[in-house]
TrEMBL record:
PANTHER family cross-referenced by the UniProt entry: BETA-XYLOSIDASE (PTHR42812), BETA-XYLOSIDASE-RELATED (PTHR42812:SF12)
Residue ranges the record marks as coiled coil: none
Name of the protein in its database record: Glycoside hydrolase family 43 protein
Similarity annotation: Belongs to the glycosyl hydrolase 43 family.
Pfam families reported for this sequence: GH43_C2 (PF17851), Glyco_hydro_43 (PF04616)
The keyword Hydrolase appears for this protein: yes
Sequence ranges assigned to domain Beta-xylosidase C-terminal Concanavalin A-like in this UniProt record: 319-507
Molecular function in Gene Ontology: hydrolase activity
SUPFAM superfamilies: Arabinanase/levansucrase/invertase, Concanavalin A-like lectins/glucanases
Keywords tagged on the record: Glycosidase, Hydrolase
Source organism: Sphaerisporangium dianthi
């Protein structure tokens, strides 16, 4: 018996949506204020995934300028119809564009089209359903037209004109949650099985009370009747000390053999208290049917793998030596970059960051290249060449948002560790380290993040005491994302022509001890 481990996508990979094309499976997740947007993955066995790239990888597709922390791209849905892939999502609180939009591609690896905006729709978490009669339907969640309590939402449905890529015809209100007073009925997806339409909806809010409910109807437009066993999946009854919490926002997929599986988000608290620095991750769980309803059990840390031929992809190298001409797909920018502040070719074999005034404390696009934290215990090491001037700082950053992060940076005052909490900087330690070539490191065990440095290869020194990492958890910092770690250079509000060169960057999972 082949087994698999959850999560199947560790780290900040929330709101998963999946579709199958033949024997191939494709999956997307939310990306919020990070660019490129909507990472897309490929699998043949539902367990092992490789990243193909991003759906939204051009500024013309994704204007994130000035977007607030945990604004931006919410809850994408991925579907395939008549040889074309469709991705629909919401850009929330955009200052240039906002609302629901669709992009399409013949190849899931891209290129994807520029957005087809849907100003006729409202709300968030849009989804698509292609019926077997050739008709297409768009549906989503929005605040209820006649709200009865705070957080009261409803699911709407309209036909979609694929030629004009816009809604058409009458609007239908389908559902507003299964539980009395259910808040935030959202993330709707419609499926058809044995001639019956099923509506899968999350409710309870995307934190500890998250849950998934289901309703069914004889017509896609309803009326929908909920299952008497709702919610069909939740961990909220298991308490805050359970290893997997907040299960919800699921999407169903059926294998060629007829087996049903669900991808969904959940969190893994750790380090004492209810903190989850990794954010909401993507999990996999089996689904079976009883009395005409889908049934899902508890989401387990491990389980029997789908009855599919195992397909393992090559493991990406732990160390990026920056020998490519383009950034690898794990790297992201904070909001949409409008100028090339990084280069891999100006000094071959190095990632060069160009200094600019923008800081990570602003709702801006700073000179930052970052990747997700994916493990509770991990180590990051990097080699940097930088000579600071004036107020400049360069080095490593562990980022939750503009008001909550940790810095390990070289400044004119020396190598400095700064913990920012609730918008206030706390300088924890400053060491008199000569500028030039430095080796920088972070080794995390649970919520203890130990800063390291070296002035010669392989000669690591501790820098101060371990830093409390709970500042990187959304339970303290708020919002919807997980922690990022990356390379950073800023003039901190002042123009600068300086550069910081990074020779390599490695990310390694560490064993628990």
């Amino acid at each position: 018996m082949v087994r698999f481990s959850n999560p199947i996508l560790p780290g900040f990979h929330p709101d998963p949506s999946i579709c199958r094309v033949g024997e191939d499976y494709y999956l997307v997740t939310s990306s919020f204020e990070w660019f490129p947007g909507v990472p897309i993955f490929h699998s043949k066995d539902l367990v092992h995934w490789r990243q193909l790239g991003h759906v939204l990888d051009r500024a013309s597709q994704l204007p994130l300028d000035g977007v607030r922390p945990s604004g931006g791209v919410y809850a994408p849905t991925l579907r395939h119809h008549n040889g074309l892939f469709y991705m629909i999502t919401t850009l929330v609180d955009g200052l240039m564009e906002s609302g629901n939009f669709i992009v399409t591609a013949a190849d899931p690896a891209g290129p994807w089209s520029d957005p087809y905006w849907l100003p006729e729709t409202e709300g968030f978490d849009p989804s698509l359903f292609f019926d077997d009669d050739g008709r297409a339907w768009v549906h989503g969640a929005r605040p209820a037209r006649q709200p009865q309590f705070e957080g009261h939402t409803e699911v709407w449905l309209r036909e979609l004109d694929l030629n004009g890529m816009k809604p058409a015809g009458e609007e239908h209100v389908l559902w507003d949650g299964a539980v009395k007073g259910a808040v935030w009925a959202e993330g709707p997806h419609i499926y058809k099985a044995d001639g019956t339409y099923y509506l899968l909806v999350s409710e309870g809010g995307t934190e500890h009370d998250h849950a998934i409910s289901v309703a069914r109807a004889k017509r896609v437009t309803g009326p929908y009747t909920g299952s008497s066993r709702n919610p069909i999946l939740t961990h909220r009854n298991l308490g805050r000390d359970h290893p997997i919490v907040g299960t919800g926002h699921g999407d169903l997929v059926r294998t060629p053999a007829g087996d049903w599986w669900m991808v969904l988000l959940a969190m893994r608290p750790y380090g004492g208290g209810y903190h989850y620095n990794l954010g909401r991750e993507t999990f996999l769980t089996p689904v079976h049917w009883e009395d005409g309803w889908p049934v899902a059990g508890l989401v387990q840390p491990s389980g029997e793998a789908p009855a599919l031929a195992t397909c393992r992809w090559p493991t990406p190298p732990a160390c990026d030596d920056f020998d490519t001409v383009r950034l690898l797909p794990q790297w992201n920018h904070l909001r949409t970059p409008r100028e090339p502040y990084w280069t891999l070719t100006e000094r071959p074999g190095f990632l060069r960051l160009r200094g600019r005034p923008e800081s990570i404390t602003e709702r801006a696009n700073p000179s930052l290249i970052a990747r997700r934290q994916e493990h509770v215990h991990f180590a990051v090491h990097a080699s940097m060449e930088f000579i600071p001037e004036n107020r400049e700082r360069a080095g490593l950053v562990l980022l939750q948002n503009d008001d909550f992060h940790i810095l390990l940076v070289m400044t004119t005052g020396g190598l400095t560790v700064i913990r920012r909490e609730d918008g206030v900087d706390h300088t924890l330690v400053q060491a008199d380290v000569p500028p030039g070539r430095l080796w920088l490191g972070v080794e995390a065990h649970g919520q203890e993040y130990q800063m390291l440095y070296g002035t010669r290869p392989g000669e690591w020194r501790l820098l101060g005491e371990p830093v409390d990492g709970r500042v990187l958890s959304t339970t303290l910092a708020g919002g919807f994302i997980g922690a990022y770690i990356g390379m950073y250079l800023s003039g901190e509000g002042h123009p600068t022509g300086n550069v910081a060169d990074f020779d390599w960057f490695e990310y390694l999972p560490l064993p628990e001890y």
